[in-house]
Amino acid sequence: MAGANPRQAVENFVRPLQRALSCLTDQRIDHQGGYNLGTDYVLTLKRGDAVRLRDRDNRRQYDLRITQNYRIIEAEGDRGPYKTTTTAYMYTIGDAGGHEIFGYHWHPNTGIRFPHLHLEHGANIGLQILHRAHFPTGRMSIEDFLEFVIDTFKLDTRRPRWRATLKQSHEAFKKWQTWT
């Protein structure tokens, strides 16, 4: 998101993400608070701790974790003079026993440079080789991830119009993204 200064660019980046996450939780996004250009910063939901969620029937519980790295950069035109850009992410859902079910990851500064999906022990697949696999995906926005887990796990939402909230946040994201 664009901003008149680095601080405003970060605030404009975090605000729609917080609104999207409010569809499931009242937990806050934490970010390191630095505003130096070209430095990677980390934002996490609930300081990286799992956020406990439950399904609509209140029969199952799940753990949500969100981590995203970002950098403040200079930008031109309506994308500037400053904006944030995502440099890595990890979005995961786990079972109530603390076992990750699956996670969408993108960390291009490591050996695995492409966005990918992990199927973990909580998915109860049984084939050990799949737990180490990096299934290629496209880049995943937080909003797309949240919509997927809400629908798939039939999660209890905090907003009756959660789809509209996610759509509004995602439209803001798409307006400012520089990758497709």
Structural class: alpha+beta
Tally of alpha and pi helices? 4
Give the distance, in angstroms, between the N- and C-terminal Cα atoms.
15 Å
**Average pLDDT, all residues:** 90
Task: Count the E strands.
Answer: 9
Q: Mind describing the biggest β-sheet?
A: 9 strands, antiparallel
Oligomer: single chain
Rg over alpha carbons: 17 Å
What letter string, H or E per element, gives the SSE order?
EHEEEEEEEHEHH
Principal-axes geometry comes out as: globular
Strand content: 25-35%
Residue share in helices? 25-40%
The count of domains is 1
Low-confidence stretches: none
Overview of this structure, please?
The chain is α+β, with helices and mostly antiparallel strands and 180 residues long. The chain has one domain. 26% of the residues lie in helices and 31% in strands. The chain has four helices and nine strands. It has helices at residues 6-21, 128-131, 142-153, 162-176; strands spanning 2-3, 29-31, 40-45, 51-54, 61-74, 82-95, 100-106, 116-119, 135-136. Strands 1, 2, 3, 4, 5, 6, 7, 8 and 9 form a nine-stranded antiparallel β-sheet that branches. A hairpin with an 8-residue loop joins strand 2 and strand 3. Helix 1 (6-21) runs antiparallel to helix 4 (162-176). The two termini are 15 Å apart. 25% of the residues are buried. The mean pLDDT is 90.
